Structures are given as C-alpha cells and as structure tokens.
C-alpha cells in the first residue's frame, strides 16, 4: 500500500475517533468500553474517564486469539465477566474510529448478549 494512502487512512480514523470522543465519556458506574483492532489481534477495555483509570480489560493476544468475529465474541465474554465482577452492568460503547461493522459489531453484540447494556 502506498505510504501517503496509509497516512491518509490513519488521519481519517484519528478524526473519526476525536469526533466520537468529544461526545462520549465514561464514569465509574457507566464506563466507556473502547476497542482496538489491529490486523492480527483484538483488544477491549472499560475506562473511567473521570478518574482516568481502566476498570476492566480483555486482551485477545494474551488469550491466543486472532482478529476475527469468533475471537471478538470471546474477548467480549471475558470483558463482560470482568465488568460483572466489578459490579458494572451498563457501559458506553466507543468504536474508536472504526466502522461499526464486522469484528466491532460482533464484539458489541456479544457484549450485549453477556448482560452488559451498551
């Protein structure tokens, strides 16, 4: 892929990310669930933006998973269990500039299926 095209794609994602982050914020009782997907792995965490701390996290790489829909569902199950252990039932979903499609949508749906209101 051309270097300038790659820089343009990253800049566009950064703009989308900033636009979304300007509208949502997480608290201690309703954290922001954010996702990161690379070409190989998928990660998610629940963040309290008021205190600036991560309340729960799930790492697909540490679980030995790839970046596909099945892996996203397993990451969502792990994150939901960690959030429930801390007494968190509701969250605000931050797609982190990614299109709500494929792996990101599968993660959000699986999070809902595991009892977290997103």
UniProtKB/TrEMBL annotation:
Alphabetical UniProt keywords: Ribonucleoprotein, Ribosomal protein, RNA-binding, rRNA-binding
CDD domains assigned: Ribosomal_L18_L5e (cd00432)
GO CC term, one of those recorded: cytosolic large ribosomal subunit
Family named by the database record: Belongs to the universal ribosomal protein uL18 family.
UniProt-recorded name of the protein: Large ribosomal subunit protein uL18
Pfam families recorded: Ribosomal_L18p (PF00861)
Subunit relationships: Part of the 50S ribosomal subunit; part of the 5S rRNA/L5/L18/L25 subcomplex. Contacts the 5S and 23S rRNAs.
Lineage of origin: Bacteria, Pseudomonadati, Campylobacterota, Epsilonproteobacteria, Campylobacterales
Alphabetical list of HAMAP family matching this protein: Ribosomal_uL18_B
Top-level taxon of the source organism: Bacteria
Biological process (GO), any one: translation
Organism: Hydrogenimonas thermophila
Molecular function GO terms recorded: 5S rRNA binding; structural constituent of ribosome
Function description: This is one of the proteins that bind and probably mediate the attachment of the 5S RNA into the large ribosomal subunit, where it forms part of the central protuberance.
